[in-house]
Design brief:
Elements: H1 18-32, H2 45-58, H3 62-68, E1 69-72, E2 75-78, H4 80-89, E3 93-99, E4 102-109, E5 112-122, H5 123-128, H6 137-140, H7 142-159, H8 170-173, H9 189-210, H10 214-223, H11 230-239, E6 256-259, E7 262-265
Length: about 270
Amino acid sequence: MSEPTPNALVVREDSMAPAAVQARIAYAKSLAASSLLPDAYRERPANVLLAIEYGQALGIKPIAALNGINVIKGKPTMSADLMASVVRKAGHKLRIRQEGMSVHAQLVRADDPDFTYEVVWDEARARRAQLWGQRGPWSLYPEQMLRSRAITEVCRQGASDCLYGVIYAPEEMTTEEHGPGVDDYLGPDDTVAQLRQECEDLVHRFVRKFGGDPEQIAQEWMDQGGTANPPALTAWLTARIPQPQPQPQPQEPVDDEVVEGEIIEEENTND
């Protein structure tokens, strides 16, 4: 094995030094020339470089990033399998159980082993989301699509901190996949996903403290015209907090009457 020369430059993958950046650009250009890459990266070195940078943040190798990360409308996405791998690599436990057309996904954080995040995707829920039977994967591979939705949702709920903003699968970002109303979310396109995640977190914190069904609460919010607006959702949830009923105070008999600062004894009607 040849040893590096004394004046050789050692470049860290995450370094922003000019030499390191130029090295990654050259690497991306070389990869982009390959005919084996997905169409989004072929002959597009800038896209290749962006995927590699996302992979670096997620702790995955460039080849895994290029095969598992897709940028849709400027937003990075990754497959459910890659998301599961990233979450497990971070030390969290992810369990998937499938029973027919029902998929249960559970996540237990390494730093909070006493609480389990759980998500269920089944045919009924897919129908409510107007996904069931859609042309494409939902009609061809419904079991796999249910599994993908369960994995990505539970990972967003319990381990979004290790996803670095890459919190959706490609099919969740395409127009055909979304039900009506998704385009009505407030905020610029580059912040919609973050706003939606904040709203999901608010609902689940509310449920953990006060109880309830998170899906039902979210549906009620949307039925009332609610959008991905965390402050408005916070106010709406606050109004739903159960208020303790005041206990009636016993009334004590009053023998005196106060008139203009003076105490006057009530007349005895027996006199």
